[in-house]
Design brief:
heterodimer; A: mainly beta; 11 strands; 0% helix; B: mainly beta; seven-stranded mixed beta sheet; four-stranded antiparallel beta sheet; 57% strand
């Protein structure tokens, strides 16, 4: 079946540094969604990318969908302590909108 | 949080016992899902429902069954719990607003099988 891997598994940065997580799939991605999960919390939807090469921005967050639709990335500029959590990509497929999640990247930010 | 309530929030049970987790939603969403979350695996789909009495399997459905007799309730049952089913279980619904088909998750149920 489809495998969606994220790298790195964990990253520790100092506040103000940039952060990037990469999402790579063994098969062509349909629609990519990104979620953030705070420690002890539940995943919360951030954004959806649909088109090849698509780039979307939300304040300090930049999301990209690869040209071949086999990868995606999330870049955070000038991290803040509020960015702490685990970031998941997920491929949404079918009429039932089933999600195949990536393995996640845990971000730790310290002052 | 899209009106999703999971119960119980925490449960410890013994190997071999049946366990039922409940997901309740208040906004009449058609699609509901059960995921489990384990370190190193992200979230994996167990079962999903696309309407009352309409359910289907996800990628890790072995050892689990589901039922949906009412739109608002989606139950996940472990017929005979095993230690490998120790996990955090999340229920989700599919949104239908401007964002499209994003998932909204419940608070999760932490299940420990001893």
């Amino acid at each position: 079946g489809q495998q969606v891997m994220q790298i790195p598994q964990y990253q520790h940065v100092q506040e103000g540094e940039d952060f990037t997580t990469y999402c790579n799939s063994s098969t062509t991605l349909s629609n990519i969604q990104w979620y953030k999960q705070r420690p002890g919390g539940h995943p919360v939807f951030l954004i959806q990318l649909v088109k090849s090469g698509e780039v979307k921005k939300q304040k300090r967050l930049t999301f990209q969908f690869g040209e071949a639709k086999k990868n995606s990335s999330l870049h955070i500029t000038a991290t803040q302590t509020t960015d702490v959590g685990t970031y998941f990509c997920a491929d949404q497929t079918g009429t039932a909108s089933k999600l195949t999640f990536g393995t996640g990247t845990r971000l730790q930010v310290t002052l | 949080d899209a009106g999703i309530t999971q119960s119980p929030r925490h449960k410890v049970t013994e190997t071999g016992t049946p366990v039922t987790l409940r997901c309740h939603q208040t906004e009449n969403h058609r699609y509901m899902y059960w995921y489990r979350q384990d370190p190193g695996h992200g979230l994996r789909l167990i079962h999903y429902s696309y309407g009352v009495k309409d359910t289907d399997k996800g990628e890790v459905s072995d050892g689990y069954s589901v039922s949906r007799s009412k739109t608002e309730d989606f139950l996940l049952t472990l017929e005979s719990a095993t230690s490998s089913q120790t996990s955090v279980y999340f229920c989700a619904i599919r949104g239908s607003g401007q964002g499209g088909t994003e998932a909204f998750f419940g608070q999760g149920t932490r299940l420990t099988v001893v």
